[in-house]
């Protein structure tokens, strides 16, 4: 082969090899940098049942597989604040996670609402719709009732799937169960005697039971 032709070809191949090698190094560095820069802090908002009603939340990684979280919002039982710990089997912040936390609901005083009643107690009402004295049963009908909803706490057990959006954000879909830590849920302050239907409704609205929640969280640069 002509040496005048061989030299340019060798030069071109060498340059091409060095270019490809450099590109591979840059790509590897970019992938490593992207992986190392996964967000450790998430901020977001969402809604749910026995989660935090409608509110905002924050999550902070404390190790490769564990994060602490806190949420606050408005629920059917007043203001609710939650804190807990999440474990990620694989990638911190994304994929499946298992969480355990505790929630505190503030309750509400002097809540006026319409409920089905079966009588009227001529005096101070009992706790949880029971007790009282000197009442005469009357026909069941809807009346304006005044309730005191007591502050209330639950322990929460959750499974969540953290669906990655882009490289830094996520949708979080949660399900689980919350265990009540308090027995006295409410007081009928207006003295009405509630029907079983009304009591079941109040107990349904109270914290505790099945948890369903969804939220969107944005990864924050560290």
UniProtKB/TrEMBL annotation:
Keywords, sorted A to Z: Signal
Signal sequence coordinates: 1-28
Signal in keyword set: yes
Entry protein name: Outer membrane protein with beta-barrel domain
Source organism: Marinilabilia salmonicolor
């Amino acid at each position: 082969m002509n040496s005048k032709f061989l030299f340019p070809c060798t030069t071109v191949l060498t340059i091409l090899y060095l270019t490809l090698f450099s590109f591979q190094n840059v790509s590897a560095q970019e992938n490593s940098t992207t992986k190392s820069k996964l967000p450790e802090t998430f901020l977001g908002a969402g809604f749910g049942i026995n989660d935090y009603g409608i509110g905002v939340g924050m999550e902070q990684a404390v190790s490769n597989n564990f994060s602490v979280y806190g949420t606050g919002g408005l629920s059917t039982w007043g203001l609710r604040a939650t804190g807990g710990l999440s474990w990620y089997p694989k990638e911190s912040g994304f994929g499946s996670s298992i969480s355990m936390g505790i929630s505190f609901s503030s309750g509400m005083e002097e809540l006026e609402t319409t409920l089905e009643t079966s009588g009227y107690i001529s005096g101070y009402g009992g706790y949880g719709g029971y007790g009282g004295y000197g009442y005469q049963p009357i026909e069941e009908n809807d009346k304006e009732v005044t309730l005191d909803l007591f502050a209330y706490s639950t322990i929460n057990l959750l499974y969540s799937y953290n669906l990655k959006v882009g490289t830094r954000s996520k949708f979080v879909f949660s399900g689980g169960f919350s265990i009540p830590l308090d027995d006295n849920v409410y007081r009928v302050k207006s003295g009405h005697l509630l029907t079983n239907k009304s009591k079941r409704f109040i107990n349904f609205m109270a914290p505790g039971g099945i948890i369903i929640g969804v939220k969107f969280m944005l990864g924050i640069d560290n």
